[in-house]
Amino acid sequence: MTNRSSARQDLTLVVFDCDGTLVDSQHVIVAAMQAAFTAHGLCVPEPAAVRAVVGLSLQQAMAALAPDHHPNDHDLLTERYKDAFVAQREAGHPQGQLYPGAAEAVRRLADQGHVLGVATGKSRRGLASTLERFALGDYFSTLQTADDAPSKPHPGMVQRAIDEAGASPETTVVIGDTTFDMEMAVAAGAAAVGVAWGYHETSALRAAGAKHVLSAFDEIDHVLIDVLGASAWA
Length: 234
Fold this sequence. Notes:
This protein is α/β, with parallel strands linked by helices.
């Protein structure tokens, strides 16, 4: 854990979720999930059910989608999902797109001197591929994935990001589209900010601890000032 005496109180850390927050990837996720269930001989989940578990680690997502099946089945579904996702990419299928204003917001916050991070249920390999595709990798100083910490809503990813950045929970904001992101932020002592364009309802985000819910990325500067105080921009 970060030593409070060594943490920089003037350093603001903004940790973004990936899928559903920066990138609209629901179609490729749903397709890969349905392919995994089909390959395993199970009834495919509805798209709404898949969207509801986006953000969890794959094993946790499979357990939620197939609760009556053995953990070994969840492991096999996870591997089949990974195979399906790679196959889609290699076949040239669309891999999602950035939400409007996402790239501009990331670049603007970095230019303002904020330290940026990502906390995602994706694998490290998957996240690296996504950031490379959108030329955003250089803007993030700390990357937390399902390979590094327990699944959301456990606070481990945010705590690791805070440690790596030398920040403090009081000057950290987590921005995400799911209740898992909001609960993770609250558990880590960070401020939770939701987005209205993702995979969970705004009312659920607020109930899970969101201090604000963005309706567009161009609101982000105002919201961060409100959450962190004007001194974060000093």
